[in-house]
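worker-3 :: picked CDAN1-interacting nuclease 1
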Amino acid sequence: MKLAEYEEIRAHITSLPSDVFPDADALRAKHPSASLDALVSIYSQESSRRVRGAHGKHLRAIGSHAARYVAGEDVFRIAADIDFPPCQLVRLLLEHLLGLGHKAVGPCLRDPFGKIPSSPPPESPAARGVPGVPGVPGSAICDRLKVDVERCVAWDHVASPAVDVMRHAAGREYEILLERRLEELRVPFVTEDALRAEGHAKTPDVKLTLPIAVNGRIVNWIDSKASFLDPIVHVERGVDQFQGYVNRFGPGMVIYWLGVIDELAEESDGDVFIVDDFPGDMEITKLKLME
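worker-3 :: C-alpha cells ->
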C-alpha cells in the first residue's frame, strides 16, 4: 500500500467517533488494493492510539463522569458523549468509585459478578457518597456496575478484553504459520521460547540454525507480526527492537502479515528486510556450512 493511500484511509478512520466501526465494504470499494485484514489492522492501531491519547484527559475528569453515572445516566451514553470506549470508561469508574487498584480491575472485567463486591469498600467514593448525587446506596452502585461491566465487555469492539485475546491468538497463529513454512522448506530453526531458555531477554520469533538468503539478502532470524506496518509502528515498535536482534544475531527479516507501507518496505535496505508474506521458494536460497 502506498503511503498516500494509507494516509487517506487513516484520515477517514480517525474522523469517526470511537464507537463507530468503519464501513469496510465502502473502504474496500474505494481502496480495492487494500485487504480487509489490512483495513482492520489499521483501524485497530488507530483506535489504540486514540485510547492512549485520551486516557489522561478522562482520568482527570473521572469525578464528573462518575457523577453522571451514579445519577443514572447509561454508561454507553456517557462513553459516546465523551468519545471514549465503554470498557475504558468502566475501568476508570471501577477504580474511582470502588477505589480499586489498576491490577484489580482486569479480573473484574473478566468476571464481574464474581469479582465486583456486593458492597463498596468503606472508604471508597461509592460508600461515602458521590458529590452532587446524594442518597444512592453503595450496594446499588455495585449491582449496576456488575451488569454494566458485562454489557461493555460484550459490546465494546475497541477495548474489550476479548479484543486482546483475539489479537494474541492471531499473533500465535501467524507464528505457527511461519514455523510450518520453515519446516516445509526443511530450514532448521530455534524458537523464541528456546532462545529465552538460553538466557536471551528479547528475541525474534525464530533464529535460523543456518542462515538463508532471500532475494540475495542474508537472513539469520525472522520475526512475525500479525499487524500492518505503518510509519508510527515502524518508529515506535520496530527500529530499536529489530536493531537489537541485528546486534546479537546479524541481519534478519520481519514479516508484517497484514500489509506494509510500500515506501517503508523499500527503505529496508539495511540489516532488516521487511516483507508482507513469507517469500516464495524461488526467492529463497538455503546456505550450507563450509566443509
